[in-house]
Design a protein that fits this description.
alpha/beta, Rossmann fold, 15 strands, two-stranded parallel sheet, 10 helices
Length: 298
Amino acid sequence: MRIMVSGATGLVGRALVRDLEDEGHRVVCLVRREARGNSECAWDPERGTIDKDGLEGLDVVVHLAGESIAAGRWTVARKARILDSRVQGTTLLSSALAACARKPRVLLSASAIGYYGDRGDEVVNEESAPGTGFLAEVCQAWESAADPARAAGIRVVHPRIGIVLSRDGGALPKMLPAFRLGLGGPFGAGQNYMSWVTLEDLVGILKFAIAHNDLSGPVNAVSPQPVTNLEFSRILAGALRRPAWFAVPSPLVRAALGEMGQGLLLEGARVVPRYLTEGGYLFRHRDLEGALQTLLHS
């Protein structure tokens, strides 16, 4: 297939592109500079420009691009960039795809489990109502921005991505130094849920969504076994054969990181992948202990 990927230089994008190319697919990367050959297509979401000719004849588009939510405190300006990078980019891309003479059969337009907001120990699935707060508002607007493609008859899937675990980037490498020193532990009381997925499974989920025509709309891209922050800390420390005694007090998290710390470290949702489970996706890593053993010791 001829598959376009935005955000191809990010953690998920790099792994997906490598996997698709290994399977023999032709990958076109959406880039924010002049395209170099047929394997790239240029766009500039802030200026609202995209090479529409490069979109013709695609089979699949995987849209992963967006400003990092964990790059620093959520100032007014940063929150605007987080929202605009997702809504502007998705609106531009989905509108351009809708106008194509030869449209792709599917658009995977990324979202996140932030859609559900802070839900305590409530179990939520794809049919649960959206939550409240900044991340929930961003995710709702992000998903709605793909409406032009949906209205044009393109199958649109929104992988709501959880905490991605990988040796190569994301949250895990940032946690490891403290935990290896025996200084790791939960944030606050540690009762907020962490809905996680390994990078290997996330790539598998994206390919599963491409291949299964019955999947559309939201798909929770998370393991079937979410854990609390406290459980995550205990299991990670155990995998490293270290204690996990040092809880970080909630006031310290808020003082150091503000709204970002509250949203990313002290809140969470107990998200389950109902549509993937019912659809027959086979997880490589279902439980956290096995996943961390594989990531840290293989």
